[in-house]
Design goal:
Blueprint: E1 6-7, H1 9-12, E2 23-24, E3 30-35, H2 46-62, E4 72-74, E5 80-82, H3 87-92, E6 96-97, E7 109-114, H4 125-142, H5 146-149, E8 150-152, H6 165-169, H7 171-183
Parallel strand pairs: 1-5, 3-7, 3-8, 4-7
Antiparallel strand pairs: 2-6, 4-5
Helix pairs in contact: 4-7
């Protein structure tokens, strides 16, 4: 099985959620690709990835979401982090944790935040390669067709530019690369 190294909430020192996390007895049917709309840092270290996960959680909790909204986060250095509480457990159990990352579609989509903003900036190679591996893992785990399942945030919410024009333009490449990994 293809599987990225996912750093747990304990490893990046997440705060406990302030609301009840909904653990659903079903699988997601789409993978939603996001960008964090934060700085395009040049610090690609694991420590920076941990700091960024804490920043996202703080921001999402300040918005009243009770925890990180997304299930997974990928740093510009390519490190994959568990986001919302119980996300890793749900993936391993082929279940789903409802997030707060795609309005009106949280009960059936799993969200991946990609650190940075990609309206005009180039997506770092390490981040994109980790996104390929992570999406292949999720497609394999949940039995999803990458051509149908991998979408951008703007495919569900027309008022957002997320995941940025540059990352969105690479979604066909992402789907193709994920399909190639699954076929290997």
């Amino acid at each position: 099985m293809v599987e990225p190294r996912v750093y747990t909430r304990a490893e990046w020192r997440a705060l406990p959620p302030t609301t009840t996390i909904r653990y659903l007895d079903r699988q997601p049917d789409h993978i939603v690709v996001h960008h964090t709309a934060g700085d395009n840092t040049t610090d690609y270290s694991l420590a920076a990835a941990f700091r960024h996960s804490r920043w996202i959680q703080d921001l999402h909790m300040a918005n009243g979401w009770g925890d990180s909204g997304q299930q997974l986060t990928i740093s510009r250095g390519g490190y994959v982090m568990e986001g919302r509480r119980y996300s890793l457990r749900a993936i391993y159990e082929r279940q789903h944790v409802s997030g707060v990352q795609t309005a009106n579609h949280n009960d059936h989509t799993i969200g991946i935040e990609n650190e940075g903003i990609y309206v005009t900036a180039t997506v770092p190679t390490a981040l994109f390669n980790s996104l390929v591996t992570t999406c292949a893992w999720l497609c394999q785990t949940y039995g999803l067709d990458p051509y149908a399942a991998i979408v951008g945030h703007r495919d569900y919410v027309s008022t957002t530019v997320c995941p940025g024009d540059r990352l969105y333009a690479r979604l066909p490449e992402l789907r193709q690369r994920v399909a190639a990994v699954l076929a290997a």
